[in-house]
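Supplementary Text 2. Reproducibility record for the structural model of the 69-residue chain.

All settings were left at their defaults, and a single model was retained for analysis rather than an ensemble. We include the record here because the model underlies the residue-level annotations in Supplementary Table 4.
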Amino acid sequence: GPPVWIHGDLQSGNLLAQHGRITAVIDFGGLGVGDPACDLMVAWNLLSAETRDVFRAALTVDDATWARG
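Retained model, structure tokens:
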């Protein structure tokens, strides 16, 4: 797909959570235009397989974008 705005540094230190839900994303120093799959890497680095399935179901990305993440 076409380049889109991405956070560029989604990792646990930049995600704030409360009661098991993400409530905020911080630190936009890596903000830029790029492949949206870059911001999906968080799913593979931080989430369990079960949670990853829930995360994927909530997204509106195609299979190719998901596979690149």
